[in-house]
Structures are given as C-alpha cells and as structure tokens.
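Duplicate of #3305? Posting structure anyway:
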C-alpha cells in the first residue's frame, strides 16, 4: 500500500515495546531488542513506527543501532509532541519550539537527514492546533520532513491539518473493542490517507470473545491472531502496526497478517 509516495507492506511494526517496562528506559536485554528489530524487517515489516517519547529517546536509538545504514525500502515514521517526565507520564507539548527541538533530536538519534513520516503525537490543549501543525509544515518546507502525519485526532482536526499541510497518515486507536475512530477512518478512506490503528488487542476482551474464538478455531489460528486480522479486511487504507518484544509474538503477528478471513467471518467479527 501507499503512504504518500512511499510503498510499504500491509503490516508495519510498532517498535515501542522493545524499550524497558512501561516504555521507559533501555530494554533489560539490549541484544534481544536489536534482534527483534532486525527480525521484524526480515519478516517483511518495512514500515517502523516509533516516537521520541518512547524511552524517551531509547527506541529511536535502538532502531539506528539495529538497522543503520537502513535498507532502501525501510520507511521510518516517528512522532513528536509528547514528553515523559516519568514512567507513568505522557504530557502533551505541541509548542512549535518544542516540536522543532524534538525533530532535530529524532534526526540525530535515527542518523537521518530527513524523516520519512513525521507525526504530531497528540494535540496539545494548551496550544492552538494550527500552530503545532504549522511547525510540522515549516519543517517539511525546510526539507527535514518528507511527509506529515497526525495521531489521536478528530475528523475536525484532520481537516484543520489538511488546510495547512498535506497529510499522508492518521494514527488513532482502533480495534474490535474500540471503534470510536470509525468516522476518522471513513474520512481517511474518502481522502486516500493511510490509517494506522494502534492498540490492536484493546484491553484484551476481544481475546475472550466467543466470536473470535469461533473464527480462530475455524482457521486453526489463535484468538490473538484473529482479533487483529480483521482490520486489513476492514479497509484497504488500514496499515496495522502491532508491537511486541517477543519473537514468537512477532511471528504470530506476521501470520495474522497473512490470515485471509472469509466475508462471513469478517461480518461476524465486525458485528461486535
């Protein structure tokens, strides 16, 4: 599928889980984390999603250590706009001056001259949304950002962004349990914008669903494979980015991406 003018496979990799617990600090086993990142690419995940707040900073450093110099087809999408005062804190900071500093830090850590896809991690209620987006547009004009994306936005905010800069991706929570961003997904379909759903299994209730278990048994798969497998079928603009720090779960995710659900299976799952 396309993300802007970039071609990527239909399964990306959300790299945040290779950091320490609570996405804070370095991993307990750095060598294992590096193997995870390399294996994700080997299995065909050529779209990596990260953020400067993961670690903070640790995730981007690990990606560069594992894969730089990067394969030509690897697309790295990172985000700015959240800060981490502590392990349990995710504070918005959408000030233009902060976003400029965040972008420069990401470039340095990722060893890049230009970010493929730079995303506003979340709107900051203390900063006019247009100012945050305008900062990303300025960075794109400076040649430091190839494409702009947004995350955790409403349809109105997506339209506000599009009035300032071309948007190639939207990253919102979307899974069997939480489809509150259905209107945002439909807007992305109408506008031909990639939709990156995060939190693929929700709070885990989907894994205990009788419908999920029924479809899993039919296909000889696990509930953890079936629950996210319906999303690519839901929309051709859907680009899942599941994350894990387990090699087995990573391979399960790849198998889930290859799982082709019949229309009857999809309707059963999508029915809630």
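Output from current build:
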């Amino acid at each position: 599928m396309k993300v802007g003018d970039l071609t990527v496979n239909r399964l990306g990799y959300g790299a945040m889980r290779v950091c320490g617990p609570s996405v804070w600090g370095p991993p307990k086993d750095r060598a294992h984390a590096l193997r995870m990142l390399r294996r994700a690419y080997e299995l065909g995940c050529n779209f990596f999603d990260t953020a400067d707040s993961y670690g903070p900073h640790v995730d981007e450093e690990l990606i560069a250590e594992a894969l730089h110099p990067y394969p030509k087809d690897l697309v790295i999408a990172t985000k700015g706009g959240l800060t981490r005062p502590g392990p349990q804190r995710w504070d918005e900071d959408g000030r233009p001056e902060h976003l400029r500093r965040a972008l420069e830090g990401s470039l340095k850590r990722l060893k890049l001259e230009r970010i493929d896809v730079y995303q506003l991690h979340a709107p900051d209620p203390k900063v006019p949304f247009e100012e945050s987006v305008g900062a990303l547009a300025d960075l794109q004009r400076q040649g430091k950002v190839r494409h702009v994306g947004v995350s955790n936005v409403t349809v109105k905010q997506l339209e506000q962004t599009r009035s300032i800069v071309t948007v190639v991706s939207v990253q919102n929570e979307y899974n069997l349990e939480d489809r509150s961003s259905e209107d945002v997904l439909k807007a992305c379909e109408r506008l031909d914008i990639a939709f990156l759903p995060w939190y693929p299994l929700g709070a885990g209730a989907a894994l205990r669903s009788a419908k999920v278990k029924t479809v899993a048994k039919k296909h000889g798969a696990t509930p953890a494979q079936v629950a996210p497998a319906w999303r690519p079928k839901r929309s051709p603009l859907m680009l899942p980015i599941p994350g894990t720090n387990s090699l087995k779960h990573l391979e399960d995710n790849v198998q889930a991406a290859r799982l082709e659900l019949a229309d009857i299976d999809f309707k059963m799952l999508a029915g809630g």
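Confirmed duplicate; merging threads. The longest helix spans residues 96-110. The mean pLDDT is 94.
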